Amino acid sequence: MDGKIAELEAILYASGRPVTLTNLVAHLRLNHEMEVSNLIVKLSEAYERDGSPLEVSEVAGDRVVLQLKPDYNKQAKKFSIKPLLTKGPLRTLSYVAYNQPVEQKQVSEARGSQAYKHLRTLEKMGLISRKKQGRMTIINTTADFADYLGLSTDRTSMRRQLRSIFRRLEVKELK
């Protein structure tokens, strides 16, 4: 059993994003999702018992992710090798997230000529998807976007959460 827990930890660590229980069953060569759930509980308990800064968290769609506990985010950001979004792409992403589904042309009109470059970057990062519909290109955020920012995948809830974030940012900027 300890070997399977170590394999689970390795898979979650290497993936860097949420993994479905079904995928974990297959990769760990188990018979049922309940077995994976038991391993997840044991791994979580080990992290808790050891006072680890890591945690295994469940996200929508029967997926789990190995992540840093929020209390350690500030310290870890200084050393992160993940590509951080600069202000321009982040604002473009915010525009897309709030107005989705949105036509690419609208994004460009609202965000300027650099928007196309931002959109390519965001698509490579897996935060948005672009689909052709006739002569238009429609842009939406992905499930990875919601996971990345800890937002709901439900569009209505996501908009409400984004409004709250934007309000807090405006207040900070005014101070």
Helices and strands, with pairings:
Elements lengths: L1 H14 L3 E2 H7 L5 H18 L3 E6 L3 E6 L4 H5 L9 H13 L2 E2 H8 L3 H10 L3 E6 L2 E6 L1 H7 L5 H20 L1
Antiparallel strand pairs: 1-3, 2-3, 4-6, 5-6
Helix pairs in contact: 1-3, 2-3, 5-7
Written description of the protein model:
The protein has 175 residues and is an alpha+beta fold. It folds into two domains: 2-69, Orthogonal Bundle (Arc Repressor Mutant, subunit A), CATH 1.10.10; 87-174, Arc Repressor Mutant, subunit A (Orthogonal Bundle), CATH 1.10.10.10. Helices cover 58% and strands 16% of the residues. The chain has nine helices and six strands. The protein has helices at residues 2-15, 21-27, 33-50, 73-77, 87-99, 104-111, 115-124, 143-149, 155-174; strands spanning 19-20, 54-59, 63-68, 102-103, 128-133, 136-141. It has a three-stranded antiparallel beta sheet. Strands 4-6-5 form a three-stranded antiparallel beta sheet. β2 and β3 (63-68) form a beta hairpin. α1 (2-15) crosses α3 (33-50), α2 (21-27) packs across α3 (33-50) and α5 packs across α7. It starts with a helix and ends with a helix. The relative contact order is 0.09.
Determine the structural class based on helices, strands and strand pairing: alpha+beta
Distance between the termini: 53 Å
Strand order of the largest sheet: 1-3-2
Low-confidence stretches: none
Number of discrete domains? 2
Return the CATH class of the largest domain: Mainly Alpha
Number of alpha- plus pi-helical segments: 9
Strand content is 15-25%
The CATH superfamily of the largest domain is Winged helix-like DNA-binding domain superfamily/Winged helix DNA-binding domain
CATH architecture of the largest domain: Orthogonal Bundle
